[in-house]
Amino acid sequence: MRIAVAAVLALAIAVMLMTNVWLTQRFTETTRVRAELRLALYTGNITSELQRTNVVPLLLARDPQLIKALDTNDYSTASARLISARQEVAVASIRLLDMQGRVVASTNRTQIGMAFPNTEFFVDATRSRETIFSLNTNEAGGTEFDYSRALIQDNKPVGVIVVEADLSKFERSWAGISDAVAVTDSSGKIILTTEPRWRGVTMNEALAARSAPSAIERALQATADWANDAPDAYLKGQAVMRTETRVPFRGWKMIAFTSYDSVRERVNAVLALEIMGFAILLALVFYALSRRARRQSQALRAESAELRTLNSRLTREIAEREKAQMDLAVAEQTLAQSSKLAALGEMSAAVSHELNQPLAAMKTYLAGARLLLQRARTEEALSSFQRIDDLIGRMGAITRQLKSYARKGGEAFEPVDLRAALSEALSMMEPQLKTRKLHIIRTMPRGSVMVMADRIRLEQVIINLLRNALDATKSVAEPQVELMLTAGETAVLSVRDNGPGITDLDKLFEPFWTTKKPGEGTGLGLAISSSIIADFGGRMTAHNSEGGGAVFEVQLPLLSDKNRSVRAAE
């Protein structure tokens, strides 16, 4: 949910930034187009006014009443005639000048008697027979737009009629619509403007002459510059766009300045709607979060109640377990005594199991020695006695090693060749093997297979596996035992028979578990053998063969310098 809130905020910022840029460009272009349309309208109004005023001097220059007044120097009715004409054509003012440049009649009676002998509208009109247009400065410092024409009598100029076009009315109308409008003449000087201080100067001078902005104004100006495109100019400290068009009259130009306020208002209105929408979305997200938190709080309260119940139940169970542990301690003492008795039974059974094989071999060798002595074959009989002596030594070693069944062995470890141990075990089993018709297949590598072990105990394991194989093949018509010794990463000795196999592999290495009839086995052979192999750092496994019979595998680590050093340290 935090990621969702962050995603909504990031989306809102991205959308508002994109909206601001796109709408600002669009509304700025719309505002610029509207300003251009207004300029076209203003230009048409100025041109129309000038064209309409241009006709008035031509009409008045042919007025016989005005010509007669100039001829007779009777101007009593001339001013009234000019006032009447001014009302009809709606111009700013009309003046009648004699040939000395003196105003003899005017719509503004305060101008009567004023002399303009050197002005452009008088001098050029007396020299020409056409209507003359001129720009002049009035008493208030403003610009006059005058059309003048000479009055002709007997092919001689007798006076000059001057008509002032009323363009100042446009300044008043522009001031209420546009931020700033100015008209410049062909020299670049401002002749019409909504800003009075701009009159008579160039546009660059007008824009450069502005007061230094305050800190607040600079901050607002920087904000406006960031929010909009680069402004064309600054007007009263505000960024404005400049729109310019040509007036089809004497090289005049009209320039309008429009602020970005309308653009920002429209853009801000859309941004406000977007902010409102994202605010509602965030409110819904926070509402969902609050609902989720409420549900989690309810779940935590329920879980807390369950934990309190479990805590009380655990307290009761701990008390019961403490009582059970006290009972268990008493039972353990009883079991320890029983274990001691069981250990004595296992030891006696182990002694019986391990000594049976040497005793049987000794009996066989004694019978053979007796026959050899009767036949006077003394040397062969001595060989049998030597074997009997070896077996007696072996029996002594077995009784000594029975002490190690209750602990981990290791005092008699030495490098042992598995090939020699297997051959010795087969030699000890020779009397039993000769009593049976048994086919033994032996596969061994040519080189020695050295392991670190106790030679006597290792031979006991091999003899035990051979005896189990003999017992397993009693009911088989053609008994066969396969012995395979391999050396790879470890030394592996496999003993495989073709008997009926093993029914319960899980209990195979448990003490006192056997498949033999009572009196034929104690069930300790495989358990003792597995323990011996474990002492050597290996393991014993068993499984049934796919072709029938059981397979026992003894895996032992091969002898290396590392193993030798570790055993020496032990």
Automatic annotation (TrEMBL):
GO molecular function: ATP binding; phosphorelay sensor kinase activity
InterPro entries named in the record: HATPase_C_sf, HATPase_dom, His_kinase_dom, HisK_dim/P_dom, HisK_dim/P_sf, Sensor-like_sf, Sig_transdc_His_kin-like_C, Sig_transdc_His_kinase_DctB
One annotated Gene Ontology cellular component of this protein: plasma membrane
Catalyzed reactions: ATP + protein L-histidine = ADP + protein N-phospho-L-histidine
EC number(s) recorded for this UniProt protein: 2.7.13.3
Matching Pfam families: HATPase_c (PF02518), HisKA (PF00512)
Gene3D superfamilies documented for this protein: 1.10.287.130, 6.10.250.3020, Histidine kinase-like ATPase, C-terminal domain (3.30.565.10), PAS domain (3.30.450.20)
Membrane topology summary: Multi-pass membrane protein
Keywords noted in UniProt: ATP-binding, Cell inner membrane, Cell membrane, Kinase, Membrane, Nucleotide-binding, Phosphoprotein, Transferase, Transmembrane, Transmembrane helix, Two-component regulatory system
Superkingdom of origin organism: Bacteria
Localization terms from the record: Cell inner membrane
Transmembrane segments: 269-289
Domain Histidine kinase: 350-560
Function of the protein: Member of the two-component regulatory system DctB/DctD involved in the transport of C4-dicarboxylates. DctB functions as a membrane-associated protein kinase that phosphorylates DctD in response to environmental signals.
PANTHER family associated with the record: C4-DICARBOXYLATE TRANSPORT SENSOR PROTEIN DCTB (PTHR43065:SF46), SENSOR HISTIDINE KINASE (PTHR43065)
Protein name (Swiss-Prot/TrEMBL): C4-dicarboxylate transport sensor protein DctB
Organism ancestry: Bacteria, Pseudomonadati, Pseudomonadota, Alphaproteobacteria, Rhodobacterales
